[in-house]
Amino acid sequence: MPVIAVIGAQWGDEGKGKIVDMLAEKVQMVVRFSGGDNAGHTVVNQYGEFGLHLVPSGIFSTQATCVIANGAIIKPDVLLKEIDLIRSRGVDTSRLFISNRTHVIMPYHILFDGLEEEVRGGKAIGTTRKGIGPAYADKIARMGIRVGDLLDKDGLLERLRPVLEYKNNILTKIFNVKPLALDEVYNEYIKYGERLAPYVRDTVTMLEAALDRKEWVLMEGAQGTMLDPDFGTYPYTTSSSPMAGGACTGAGLGPSRITHVLGIFKAYCTRVGGGPMTTELKDEMGNALRERGHEYGTTTGRARRCGWFDAVAARYSTIINGFTTAAITRLDVLDGLPSLKICTAYRLNGKTIHEFPASIAELEKCQPIYEEVPGWQTSTNDARHFEDLPENARRYVKRLEEVIGCPASIISVGMRREQTIHKINILPQ
Ligand code: IMP
Q1: What is the distance between the alpha carbons of residues 244 and 255, in angstroms, rounded to a whole number?
Q2: Rounded to an integer, what distance in angstroms lies between the CA atom of residue 21 and that of residue 155?
Q3: 13 labelled catalytic
Q4: pTM of the predicted model, to two decimals?
Q5: Is 133 in the pocket of ligand 1 (CB under 6 A)?
């Protein structure tokens, strides 16, 4: 029962979409276990280029069943639009299923996301304003609406009425904005329920059945470990766990079932929104990385903050996820640079530290300690085997393996599926 968890190891946007799209060809089930339409996964394949937000990247596989599990969160209209778009481009969506336990983003979540960001002022998190934080907060506060609720006409009204009354009180009395009308919200969401009904299942049972049949399952993460609300740069984090542990609670999967934890690392670092990023480059090199790597958000179009590879954060990510191998993505973006830097330690209050600090105040004071390594002057786009890479690129990958703390199984040298080096095979042949 091989289960591979594909986990963002940095601040998201590591290139998980391409890796999942590629691995999905070989597996029978792909399960998206966290996040919502704050995520944007770019996939380029025979159907064209897609910026997916909710539908698992495995949807393009000819045989994989795709599941949006309980740990994810959906905005029904966004999901329905995405399904329509994919179908209109010839992709079969009949193997897509949504857990009846998945929470739903409501119109007030979007409002609160924006209003709360305004209140934070200069300390804004820089959220995607998709309602993610407020919706997960409601899940924990036991005020959430789940996909299963949308299929129960009477039940939904009964559940929504007191929740909306409470939300309207906050909207009108605290934020001084107009309340939402119960009948409008109810009618809109009941219609979504009707359209989503064919996709809704108890996906725990489906996952268990797949494991019983000894099928290969891929757990598809969204965002990245450094955005985890427990272990990331809190409070500059997202609101669901993008980590390997999140794959268990986010899908109803026992931890012992996961056989391989694949950490996805970009060959450099990027981050969107606020919060500390020790290796951020606010100079020409940062701009160069952004332009070479087209580092603009798939979801919000925001320019990503770019910097050198942060091995302190990477090692921490390996420890808390238990990565068995790593995928190093976007190596080609570094082609032609005269030299590269890897941050191997931080300088904090005159001391050298190797542990990733929990405190934001401390993180903001950390200075990177770099090791400089020579770059390579040729393109890596056509490399298909590790030996095809220029010597300095091989050295860079080997150094990353050492500092990350696990071997690289996959190296990505371009957007297309075939622009990939399989250094260690982790899939069935
Ligand atoms: P939220 O998830 O929209 O609440 O945003 C919280 C933080 O996570 C912000 O800094 C966002 O920029 C960041 N974030 C959320 N989703 C992604 C993603 O898919 N990639 C990168 N950053 C993300």
Answers
A1: 9
A2: 38
A3: yes
A4: 0.96
A5: yes
